[in-house]
Amino acid sequence: MIFTIFKKELKDTLRDRRTLIMMLVIPVLIFPIILTLFVSVSESFSKEAAEKTVEIGVVGNPDNYIFEQLELLPENLGKKNITVYADTSELKAAIKVDSAQIGIFPSPDFEQSMQIKKPAGVTVYFNATDIGMKDRAEAYLETIESIAKQERYIEMNINAEQIKPLNVNYSNVASSKEMIGKLAGGFLPYIFIAFGFIGCMYPAIDLFTGEKERGTIETLLTTPVARWQILFGKMGVVVLSGLLASTFALLGLFLSIEVFDIVKNPEILNVVHGVLSPSFILMLFALLFPLTVFFAGLMIPIAVYAKSFKEAQSIITPMNIMVVLPAMVGFFPGIELNVLTACIPIVNIVLSTKELIAGTLDVGLLGLSFAVMISLAVLAVVISYKRFDKETNVVL
Amino acid sequence: MIEVSNLRKEFSLSKQQQKELNTKDSKAIAVNGISFTCQPGRIFSLLGPNGAGKTTTMRMLSTIFKPTSGSIKICGIDVSENPREARKKIGFLTGSTGLYARLTPNELIQYFADLYDIPKNVCAQRKEKLYTLLDMHDFQGKRIGKLSTGMKQKVSICRTMIHDPEVVVFDEPTSGLDVITAENIIKLIRDCKNEGKTVIFSSHIMSEVDLLCDDIAIIHKGNLLYNGTMGDFRQNMEAPNLTAEFIRIVNETKTENA
After folding, report:
1. What is the 3-state secondary structure (H, E, C) of A90-118?
2. Calpha distance A252→A224 (Å, rounded)
3. What torsion do the CA atoms of A86, A88, A90, A96 make, to the nearest 10 degrees?
4. Contact A323/A295 with Cβ under 8 angstroms?
């Protein structure tokens, strides 16, 4: 009987345009849209930065050491145009109106300090809202300083190696998969969880509150089917809808990478190929299943209690924030899966998935997360049953 | 056959409901110890004004609500002890058609046939008979949401009768329907009687009751004010017509209570 109810409810749900859009269309489109936007925006930013000619304003004579060195800097440090300004106030005004992006003011005793081999003062003016300009100025001045240093070594007859006691080599032992997994891996579970929740929402309201509102539940309850069977049949469709929304989000990711060829970065592609492996998908769904049952179990008592679609929607929609906020912990690099975080619902699924992507998952902690979610899912089902069994909640 | 004995139903009131109803009672009595019997091959009408307790009684008969006390027997089966067996004997129809708009009549009838566990060949025979009787062949494959109210009512009737129930419960079956559509229901009630089924229907329309019923019970504020045959009711009338008599009986109770 559960299957008969499940089959009918699924057919009914799949014929609801609103549910189909939330469960199928949006999840499939989300990854292609986000990735296209992300790739095109970042590409246009780096292209613009590389092609942009930086206006550099210098105060002082054109035979100044800084001026001379700036002119000699290679083109690969970025295109530039140097203009001489009479004083610093004129230079600062030019930066404010963006006719210059970097201002360089060598101190009045600059040439003298250079000659007596003392640190020569340079003030760099920039507008912090003009992103990337401070970095560009730092790159120019570090190059000039390094040239000046080499000149002093030669003049003072010093071997540069002798005054460099340490030769430090920083070597990263983390694989690119691990790094991308840890840094950006929180994004994937966030999307799967958010869509799992949204996917459950409309069917839960439609199959419980909607049926009550339309008066169909009354006739269903007069059939010789136990209430728990009706509940399980309906709940099965709610859970399946949530899982389908997550699956379609995954399908959207697959299409973005394999069909639309949106991402070109080989390291990211490598990680995503790892994510799309059958074993990862299996593990992901093993984690998402109890979570989706938990979501369904949270929504059903509300949907059973509510008297109208609108009322149910107004209670369940704000719950979305309660789900989305803990799902965002995946974005913070410092938070890791441990005994405490494995006991916090949603957070444990996000962190487990993140570790799964990075390939650093602890089986014990995964088991604990799974056990916590299963227990909560069972509790949610029991609460749903108690609510559904209460006669005044079922009929208006 | 339906046997109802000392049936009582109480609902707990929340603080909000107590405020709305302007009462300090934590419970509301919807049905207050009523007893009656509905015989096979006869039409029993439960008559009462709005809020009298008709729908609560009908919901208890069809096992949607559990009685607070008292007993209901459907074809000898106690509904509290064995609700699932009792449900197999009951067909339930309300005025609001209560159909799934996104399904077709064929899909809906098959769904309910499956819920009643009717064998495929039996279901096919009954479906054909009912479709012919109700002239449903033309719209059997259309989505219910796109059907007219009359067509929907026919689907509703077919759904109620697909498991060939021995007892048919009609809760205000014609409320909100036009006379042409209501005629389908009136015909169904008569057919049920002719087939020897036990029929109970609740209504507040006296003309409908006059047209159909063999036995009558008048309910008001959860109490049974009258229970007898329609013939006796007519014979002992103090008012000039049935509607006036119904109003007189209800008002008499109001005066007694005051």
Report:
1. HHHHHHHCCCCCEEEEECCCHHHHHHCCC
2. 42
3. 150
4. yes
Residues in chain B within 8 Å Cβ distance of A222: 62-64, 87, 90, 92
Task: Check: CB of residue B61 under 8 Å from CB of residue B72.
Answer: yes
pLDDT digits (tens, 9 = 90+) for B67-102: 999 999 999 999 988 989 999 999 988 767 678 999
Residues of chain A with Cβ-Cβ distance to B11 below 8 Å are 392
Integer distance in angstroms from the first to the last C-alpha of chain A? 25
Contacts of A196 (CB under 8 A, 6+ apart): A242, A243, A245, A246, A288, A291, A292, A295
**Which distant-in-sequence residues (6+ apart) come within 8 Å of A304 by Cβ?**
A208, A209, A212, A384, A387, A388, A390, A393, A394
The amino acid present at B61, given as its one-letter code, is L
Surface-to-core class of residue A124, CB atoms within 10 Å of its CB (0-12 exposed, 13-18 middle, 19+ buried): middle
Residue given tokens 């309850």 in the structure block: A221
Distance, in Å, from the CA atom of A247 to the CA atom of A255, rounded to the nearest integer, reads: 12
Q: What whole-number distance in Å separates Cα of residue A270 and Cα of residue A38?
A: 18
Question: What pTM was computed for the model?
Answer: 0.79
| Widest pairwise Cα distance in chain B | 60
**In one letter, which amino acid is A154?**
I
What helix, strand, coil percent values describe chain B, rounded to 5? 45, 25, 30
Quick one: pLDDT band at residue B105, thresholds 50, 70, 90?
very high
pLDDT at A269: 73
Q: How far is CA B51 from CA B44, B47, B94, B208, B222, in A?
A: 19, 11, 16, 19, 9
User: What per-residue confidence (pLDDT) applies to A355?
Assistant: 82
**What are the per-10-residue average pLDDT scores of chain A (396 residues)?**
91 87 84 83 76 86 82 81 88 90 90 88 89 86 90 87 85 72 72 87 90 86 90 93 89 80 72 74 85 89 88 89 82 81 88 80 86 88 84 67
Of B112, B96, B92, which Cα lies nearest the Cα of B170?
B92
Contact between B107 and A8 using a beta-carbon 8 Å cutoff: yes
Question: What is the H or E stretch that residue A274 is in?
Answer: helix A266-275
Look up residue A103 and give its two tokens. 């201002």
Q: Is B74 helix (H, G, I), strand (E, B) or coil?
A: strand
Considering only the beta carbons, identify the residue of A12, A222, A224 that sits closest to B64: A222
pLDDT of residue B255: 63
DSSP summary character for residue A119: P
Chain A, 206 to 245: residues with Cβ < 8 Å from chain B are: 214-216, 218-226
Inter-chain contact A224–B116, Cβ cutoff 8 Å?
yes
| Spacing of C-alpha B102 from chain mean position | 26
ipTM: 0.86
Q: How far is A228 from chain B (nearest CA, A)?
A: 13
Distances (CA, A) of A384 to A61, A359, A378, A387: 81, 36, 10, 5
Report residue B199: phi and psi, to 5°: -120, 130
Of residues A317, A338, A315, A335, the one with CA closest to residue A327: A335
Is residue B252 helix, strand or coil? Answer: helix
Distances, alpha carbon A111 to alpha carbons A67, A90, A104, in Å:
12, 22, 14
pLDDT at A5: 92
